[in-house]
From TrEMBL:
Residues annotated as domain NnrU: 4-188
The protein's name in its UniProt record: NnrU protein
Segments crossing the lipid bilayer: 40-59, 71-93, 113-139, 159-179
UniProt organism field: Sphaerotilus mobilis
Protein's membrane topology: Multi-pass membrane protein
A Gene Ontology cellular-component term: membrane
Amino acid sequence: MTFLILGLLVFLGAHSVRIVADDWRTRQIARLGEGAWKGVYTAVSLVGFGLIVWGYGLARLEPVPLWTPWVGGRHLASLLTLVAFILLAAAYVPGNAIKARLGHPMVLAVKVWALAHLLANHTLADLLLFGGFLVWGVLDFRSARRRPAPAASVPTSGLRTALVLLIGLLAWAGFAMWAHAAWIGVRPFGAAVPAVG
């Protein structure tokens, strides 16, 4: 559990600088240059992410159950994860109505993803991982809403919004039907994948 906690502190800490020290961040970007700042930020984030993956994998070997999973939790989690994929797609397709309306769809996607996984899981590692990301998402969304919104550079269109829905649906289907089992060892619509070796 130590590596998971350390990874969360490093990863979420790096992603919280703008929440707790936006003025300091601005000064560091001015001092180092934007490229160097992004390089340091990326390196720290990758270290944190690696520790999270490693720590969560270790914690899954000796799970500490905290509650009895809700029977409908997995079904609701699958539906919420579809919403999260659509929100994530909305963050990257310019000129869609979802991003224009919500402002920060990527952060909302993280919040929905984390909540979905809290509903479907029940161990201490799950609570730390998904609960940590949910708390971060709430704080980051509040912080982002206080900052001035950038001017919209691309007008919204129904075609781009439809493209967001299609990309989100296809990405969700691919992840739910194949990647989740291949990468994480859990089939959202079936039993866990047996360990190899």
